[in-house]
Automatic annotation (TrEMBL):
Coiled-coil region: 167-194
Protein name: Chromosome partition protein Smc
Portion of the full sequence shown: 1 to 199 of 1187
Quaternary assembly: Homodimer.
Top-rank taxon: Bacteria
Function of the protein: Required for chromosome condensation and partitioning.
Family membership: Belongs to the SMC family.
The record's note on its domains: Contains large globular domains required for ATP hydrolysis at each terminus and a third globular domain forming a flexible hinge near the middle of the molecule. These domains are separated by coiled-coil structures.
Cellular localization per UniProt: Cytoplasm
Species, as recorded: Peptoclostridium litorale DSM 5388
Amino acid sequence: MYLKKIELKGFKSFPYKTTIEFNGGITSVVGPNGSGKSNISDAVRWVLGEQRMKSLRGEKLEDVIFGGTQEKKAMSYCEVALTIDNQDSIMDIDFSEVTVKRRAYKSGESQFYINNEQCRLRDIKELLLDTGIGKEGYSIIEQGKIDEILSSNSASRRRIFDEASGISKYRYKKDEAQRKLNKTSENLERIYDVFFEIE
Ligand code: ATP
C-alpha cells in the first residue's frame, strides 16, 4: 500500500489541475520558500477529513480554496484526490487501487468520494483505520509533530501505537457498539414509560 498520485485543483496555491505522481522509493519536493510545498501535505490531510483550519494553516474553511492572483481570478471550489495502491489488500475493499477525493465549495459544503462514488467522511475514516494514513495517522509527520508526541500525555501517545498495531479499528468498533447500546437503552426506557402510561 502506498500513495501513487495526488491530484489538486483549486486547492490553495494550485488553481490549475496539478498531478503529482509517486513511483515508489523516496520522493522529495523541493522549491523556493512560499512555492507551495507544504500546501501539498495540507492537501493530503484535507482529503482525509482534516477540519481544523489551524492545522491547515488557515482561518476560515474557504481558505483552502484558491483565493486569486493578478493573473487568475479566485475559484469557487477546490478538489483533491489521492490514489492509493492497494495490491496488498491492506485496505478492506475489493480494489487494487483506491481513489479518495474531497471537493469543497465556498459555501462550506464538502463532498467525499471513494472511487468516484459519493460517500461520507466516515466511510473514508473507516476504510483507512489501522493503515496509518488517517488525518491523525503517523504517516504524516509535520513540523513540530515529534515534539508534540514526546511532550504529550501517555494516553495520546498510546493512540499512535494503537494505530500501528492495528488496535484502533477495534477500539473504534467498540465505541460505535457502545453508542448503539446507549441509544437502545434510552429507546427502551422511553418504550417502558409509554407502556406504563397506557397500562
Ligand atoms: P516554505 O518553504 O517557506 O515553508 P512552502 O513552499 O512550504 O514554503 P507553502 O506554505 O506551501 O509554501 O505555500 C505558501 C503559498 O501558498 C503562499 O504564497 C500563499 O500565498 C499561497 N496560498 C495559501 N493559501 C492560498 C489560497 N487560498 N489561495 C492562493 N494562494 C494561497
